[in-house]
Amino acid sequence: MTRAFYLFLAAAALTGPALAQDTEDPATVAHEMRERQMQLFAYNLGPLGGMARGDIAFDGETAALHAGNIASLASVDFSPYWVEGSSNEELEDSRALPAIWENLEDVEQKRLNLVEAAQALEAAAGEGPEAFGAAFRNVGQACGGCHEDYREPDED
């Protein structure tokens, strides 16, 4: 499948809830959009993580495809997703901490860090498994940097 196909899927997944904004609570719609965005990240990070761990044989073409999707997804302006009233204090299914709305500039900087790391990952996909693995760790750190500060931890 081509990168354009994945981006079409991303757009379709993200615009469906947006079309319902006239009839649904904006905070709920924003939360749903964030969830779909994170699902798209997870879908693309899965095979990349398998390659980085050595569970899946490294394939530069596949790595470049998924890394390109990650870079595209990270480049989306997330600001419409941060609607007040969509934190874990207001919505039962949300894991977004209220600290987001106190630090929107930091949240945006962390997204820009992810964009940079994702672009480096895309470039490293053609350089072989070692360079790819290092770049993948940087993407994980960029994701974790935001999640550690602004997302409720998993319930384990």
Measured between the Cα atoms of the first and last residue, the distance is: 35 Å
Identify the quaternary structure here. single chain
Which stretches are poorly predicted, pLDDT < 50 over at least 5 residues?
none
**Which range best describes the helical content: under 10%, 10-25%, 25-40%, 40-55%, 55-70% or over 70%?**
55-70%
Structural class: mainly alpha
Mean pLDDT comes to: 89
Describe what this molecule looks like in 3D:
By secondary structure, this protein is mainly α. 69% of the residues lie in helices and 0% in strands.
Question: What features would you highlight for this structure?
Answer:
0% strand, mainly alpha, single chain, 156 residues
Helix and strand arrangement:
Blueprint: H1 3-19, H2 26-53, H3 60-74, H4 99-102, H5 104-124, H6 129-150
How would you briefly describe this protein structure?
By secondary structure, this protein is mostly helical. It is built from 6 helices and no strands. It has helices spanning 3-19, 26-53, 60-74, 99-102, 104-124, 129-150.
